[in-house]
Structure formats: C-alpha cells, structure tokens
Known about the structure:
By secondary structure, the chain is of the alpha+beta class. It has 24 helices and 23 strands.
Amino acid sequence: MLQTAWKSALAHKARLALTSVAILLGVAFVSGSFVFTDTIQARFESLFSDVYAGTDASVRGVAAEFGGDVRTEFPAVPQTVVTAVSALPEVAEAAGYIQGFGQIIDADGKPVGGMGPPTYVYSWVESPALNPFRITDGNGRAPTASGELVVDAATAQTAALSVGDRVSVQFASGTESFQLVGIVSFGDSNNLAGATIATITFADAQRILGLDGQVTFVDVVGVDSVSQDALVDSIAAVLPPSAEVVTGDQLTAEAISGFTDGLGFLSTALLGFAGVAVFVGAFIIFNTFRIVVAQRTRELALLRAVGASPRQVVTVVLTEALTVAVIASALGVLAGIGFAQLIKAAMGAVGFGPPDGPLTIEPRTFVIGMAVGILVTLAAALVPALHAARVPPVAAMQSSAGVRPARPVRTLLRVGILAVGAASVGFGLLTDRLLVTSLGAVVAVIAVLLLAPVLTRPVTWTVGRPIPGAVGLLARQNTARDPRRTSATASALTIGIALVVFTAIFAASTKDSIASSLDEAFPADLVVAPSNMYMAITPAAAEAVAAVPEVGVVSALRAGAAQIDGVDATVTAFNADTIEAVYTPGADVALATVGDGLLVQRTLVDEGAVAVGDTMTVAFPTGKSAALQVVGSFRDTTLGSYAVTGSTWDRLGGSSDAVTMLIGLAPGVGFQAGRTAVEKALAGFPSLTVNSVSDQIAAATAQVDAFLVLFTALLAMALFIAVLGIANTLALSIVERTREIGLLRAVGLSRRQVRAMITSEAVVTAVFGALLGSLLGVALGWVVVTAFAAEGLSSFSIPVLQVLLWLAVSALAGVIAAALPARKAARLDVLEAIAYE
Length: 837
C-alpha cells in the first residue's frame, strides 16, 4: 500500500504543487519568525558580552520604587563612591561615568532620532578596559577638552556628520554646540538598535546634566583572584543605602534583555501572522485532498474490491499528504531563513535592527517548522482520508460519486451555533466582558464559514448574473453545482479579506476617533510638544513662549509617576487658571474649582473603581504624599487617569518640566504669524515641535496609516495563499470535468469561450469569498470598536472605497488564478476529452 501511495503522489506532481506552496509559505512565516528572534538574541548577547567583557561589577543608584529622573535611567550616586570602591584590595580598577539623555541636531537643525530608540549622552571613560566605545584609525580621537564631542558611527552616517563639524546637542537644560572630534563604535558594531550616542567629557556631562559631585555608574575590574560574587560582596560593604552593586554578568544580562524585549513584540506579531497563514493554508490542503478523494472514488473502490481494508485506504491518502508535507515543509524552513533576512534588513533600514552579523539558525527552528507543516497537513487531510475509507467496493462500477445533498439538520445546527455566537457577543458587550465577547465572535465566525455552502447558490448566481451569454450561464451553474466545494475554495479568501477589512475599519475608526477627540478637546491654537520621548519642556522654554507678544494664553500640562492608594499610576497636572481657555477635557466640574482635589477618568467611575467623594492617597517619588478627595471626573484621555492642579503638584514635589504646552494666540493675531513667532522663540530648543491641532491629528493618523500598511502587507501573504487555493481547485476541477469540457467543445463552444468560462468561475468564486469576508470584517470591526468605546474608540467608520478596492482586487485575483487552468482546459483535445474516463 505504501508503494501505491508513493506512485499516486508522484503521478500527480502538478496537482499537488500548489498545495505544497500553501504549506511552504505558512512554514516560512513560522520558521522566519524564529530565525529573526534567535538572531536578535544572539547578536545582542555577542555585542554586550564583548562590551562588558572587562567589567566584573557595576555600581549604580537604587532605582526608585516608582517614577525616576528624566535626566538619567538610574539615580545618581555620590562621586565619593568611586574613591571608596577604588581603595578596596579586591578592586584592580574603578571608573565612574555619567549616562543621561541628549539629542543630536543635524546640520539642518532637525533632531536625530528620539521617537523610538533612546538618545543617550555619555561621559568619556579614560580606562580602555572599562570604556565600551572604540575609535578606529582614521575616525578622530576621544574628547579631551570642554566643548568636544564624539558620536556613534551609525548616527554620524544618518546625520551626515564628519570629524571637524560643529554639532548641536539638545539637553533638558537647553542646546549646546560642540566640536566633533571623533566617531566611535559600540564594541564591534556601528549601531546599537538605532540608539544615538553622544559622548562628551566628564566635566561637561556633570555640568550640563546638573550632576555636580555625582556619577550614575561606577564600573569595576576586580583582581584576578577574586570572583564576581566575592567582588560584589566587598563593594556592597562600602556603599551608601542609595547605591547598589551588580555583577558584570548580571549587567550584561540586563542590557541584552532591555534591547531584545523592546524588539520582542515584532516576533510575537510575526508568529501571529504565521498562524493566520497556516490556518488559511489548512483550508486549501483540506479542499485539495477532498477533491482528490472525490475524483479517485473509482480508484479507491477498486483497491477495496481487491482486498484493501479501510485502514489501508486511509494510509494511502495520508502517506500522499505526508510526502507533500515533508518536501514543502523543508522548503518552507529554507524560505523562512530568507524571510528572516528580509525582516532584519527592513528593521535596519528604519533604525531598529539588531547589530550587524549572520543569521542564527537553531535546530529548534527546523523541528518546529517541519512539525507545523507536517501536522497541519496531516490534520487537514485526515477528514478526506476517513471519507475515502468509507468508499464501498461497488463504487468501482459507478461513473461518479455525485454531489452529496444538503442536510437540513446540519444547516439548522449551524444556524443554532451562529445564534449562540451572536448572543454571546451581545451579552459580552452589554456586560462589558471582553472574554465573552471575543469567544462569541470566534464562534460566530466559525458558524458563518460552516453556513457558507447554504449561501453559495444564491450569492454566486447573483454575482455571476452580469456575465453575459452561455459563458455566464455555464459559470454560474458550475459554481453552484457543488456548493461545498465552492464555499471551501472561497473560505481561505474569506478569512484573508475579513482580516484585511477588519484592520481597515479599525484603523479608520481609530483615526476618526482621534480627530473627533482632538477637535473637541483642544480649542488651543498651537500645541508644543517634544519630538523626543526622552525629553521634556523645561521652564525656560515655557518662559520663552510666555514672553512672545503674539501669545495670549500658555497652559502647560505636566505628568509623572505616582502611586494612588499604593497602586502605580500616572498623574497629570494642569494650570487651573488657564487650562479652560485652551483645553476642554469634558469634566463634570469647573477646572478652576478643583483646588486641592483629585480628578479621575470617567471610565473609572463608570466601572465602579472609584466614586466622587472618595478619598485617595497620592504618593510621589519624592516621598511626599497627600490624601486627596475625588471632586469630579473627566472624559478626554489626554489627562490620563488622574489629574491634579499645578499647586497640588508643586506641593508634592512634582517635576517642573512639562510634557505638553497649549497656546492660545492673542486677539487679532493670525495663525501663521503666531506660529512663526513661537517657533522663533523656541529656536534654542530644536527638540520641541510647534503644531496646530490639525497637525497633531495628521501626525497621529499617519502613525495609524503606517500600522495599516504594515498589517495589510503581512496579511497579503494569507491572501496570496488563498488565491493559490482557487487556482488549485480549478486545476483539479479541469481533470474532473475533462469529458464534460470535451462535450462542450464538440457542440460548438470555442477555446476562447472555455477560457472565459473557467475565468468567470474563478471570478465568481473569488467575489463570493470576498463579499462574505467583507461582511465578516465589518461585523468584527463593529464588535471591536463597540467593545473599546470606553477606551477612546468613539467612532465606527467603514472605509467604503477600501472595501470596494479589495472586492476589485479579489476579482482580479480570480482572473490571475484562472490563467493556467483556463489555458489547460482550452487546449484539451476534443476527441480525447470525450473518451476520457
């Protein structure tokens, strides 16, 4: 029987080629995701192991329980710690240095980086053993005097900087100009996952970052005879309570984790899309083997007639599937390696890539890739195989097994499943239970796919009606002849289009919600915000704007970490005297009357987490706390979850830096004149941007559009697999209908009409799948937008033009999928086709 299975597989190479491609692409997605993840891990392990190879221990400030200093990632420690640690007999060398935030400004006055990887400033470390930076020959020298600077090679290339240039760097305290004297590498790499690095003298770093008499880190090299753990124990004994010490191994592990976790979301997303591709491919595999089994009814019946058992028949079908799965999965793993290289190159192009180096291919990648391809293929082929085992020997004497009639009981059961799913969605939305809503939506989608055969006849007949003449009639009859086959063929496309339309609706609804919220909440003429997430608006910048004659009102929003009744949270501070002139948060009390009270986000009140009149303890990182009464709530999410007045903020020791500055122009001042005046006043703060509310909306919607493009591009793989499924089904149907096509040719149907008939069938099938997918996408979009209405998704928007475009793309995909099968059908020899059995 195994020999029979092998011969069957090898005798139908073309029939199974398209099925192999579906498996290959799904496995490529899975294996590529693992290769990319393993490469990130390996490259950062290699990089940081080299960088910290000479560091046996590192001293740093004890991180605050919550919150922190925007100037550094860790709180500073007294510089005297360097002296105390250096005096220990277990220490061979110790060097203190400073790490903080600063943003390089290019020659055009534009900030480099900042809205992704961090923008670091370091003090230069004189010790070669403890300095992670390397200056190669021809790239200048280290900074030795005040006003000198070195930058990393990747940033120098991005900003077109050369040794000798004057370079401005934006700090929290303002902008300073430096002479570029060197270009450094980070270990053996020119790039640190997109981070920009500016290195200056130790004295400049202390002065600019306001850390006189302090350092942020003390790196230590121990004597050869002392282990890292013993070195840490001896250092800990001389440290003040505000400092802690970790081993060099722990420091390396933390650095690796910090960068790999930051890119880990991409691996998770890729595996999610891989799951979609594999799921869609499973539909094609199932449909292919179902059709193949139907076509081979007489062959399988003959096997039964000569003594083959049902188990042996199942073995024949599954062995054929296993043969295809092994070959396609192996090719898929190889394709996944190329896919990982493409991802790595794309991430590097936008500044988020891992350090340079070869791809890392673990044995696990081959095992998982092969396992996914083989198991999914065998699972999809199992039902057709079991159906083959039930073929009776008497079927060998019949010309065709025919089409199985619809069973009303099954249809009613599927309608019941749909009703249960819809009811669960409704119950979940009414009771705000996201898990129930999600499970109900999944059940409803499965029920719709199960009901697709019932919808096939009326929908395909309607869709195909515009196709004129006998060709259109034949196409409609052929697609409606076997509803189960047509719906199974269209199901893969249905899933792909549903996800694409859902993504488009989610994006459109998000953009509309953002635009509506900003338009309603911000009557301000201008909004000033940092272009760098690691920077803030200093009081000096706010004072510069307030002094502009064209400005009528300036109201700053400050924000920072706090604890509310012991739970970590973010608190926003507003100026009660000016806020209502430039901002409307939808509060149920006048902001000028809040006083020493606390405002909370309205969803917290609606969910019963807090009530107006409650008293909550608000604690700041400074150690100060206060019991504040909840005096009201607000709707807009710009204020976060909790808000207090500026006076309360100052009393609790909140930062004087702002995160946003809202500006109302003086009466009679035109918008452009006011904007120009504010920009001129902020010329010394190039990391700050001056925008109108419409600019803010455009920037936010641009980010949503980028998300839409990325997701659609990844989902395109699933759509491509779905199109292959249509082509596969048509190719198999040509074999099944060889005699029928020959008879049509004999009674006068031309080759051109045969091609048109096959193409029309593909178009009708594709449009049917796209219509069903569009309806599912719209329904899922509505459910998600409704479920997240409290989180800011206030508008439900259907991008009609995009949906119509995808319907047109689906029709075109049908034409492309039909090209080869239609050509094969048109070239059939009439006499041989008529005689075909």
